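Your task
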Amino acid sequence: MLSLLNAYYLLYLQETDAQKKRLLEEKIQLIIDDIKQSDYKDLSQEPEWLEIFRLFDK
């Protein structure tokens, strides 16, 4: 799940089209919500997760 989140985040950073960027942002938010609702391992040791979470958690 974190690999998918990281991949979407990298695409988001590279995207220049506003509409595509908004779609990627929505997908990232859905993945974050899914991770938060699951019994996922302790993510406090995952710096990539923490960075993305801070940027996109709404």
Remarks:
- The mean pLDDT is 84.
